[in-house]
Amino acid sequence: MLINRVKQVIANESGVAIIVSLLIMVALGVLGATALMVSSTDISIGGNYRQAQETFYAADGGSELCNCLINRTLDDRNVSAADQYIIQDLNFVTEIISIIDDPDNVTAGDANFAPDIRTNINLLAVDVDVDRVSETIVREGSAMEFLSGYEGIGGGLASGGGAMRFRIDSVGRGSNAISNIETMYEYVIGIGG
What we know:
Layout: H1 2-11, H2 16-76, H3 92-97, E1 117-121, E2 124-138, E3 161-173, E4 178-189
Antiparallel strand pairs: 1-2, 2-3, 3-4
């Protein structure tokens, strides 16, 4: 009698289709939720990567901007009216023209970081600190090698010349990223073309 009852329960398949379809729907729901979570994480990672790239390029642009400002300041011995709105430090010209004991000679990671230049590049804040760190004087009749190769100029300095070296610390800031680029810039003096 027990065997007949078991055979009867097994033979009766009513409701099995609903249970199987519910299990399949739960499995598909879990699979869909996992796919949604993975894709939203990928979108977030892509956005953070893009923001990091933008802040890096903004910081790099600040460094290039500073190179131009150094050239113009040394050529003119003053800051042009067009450049005055981005220069924050009143001693900027003095820092560029002469080696001084710069009180803001700190890097971007320091709490006392006070930029010489503040601007926006592609809607991202960029702070740049520039410090003249050394100079080299070359006597008349000497030769100066630029980098490690002959660049077509500077083979001989009949009237003498020299070079000034600047440390440029440029920081780009976005909503989710900060990029810091530190470069050295060498301004070569007394070389004819």
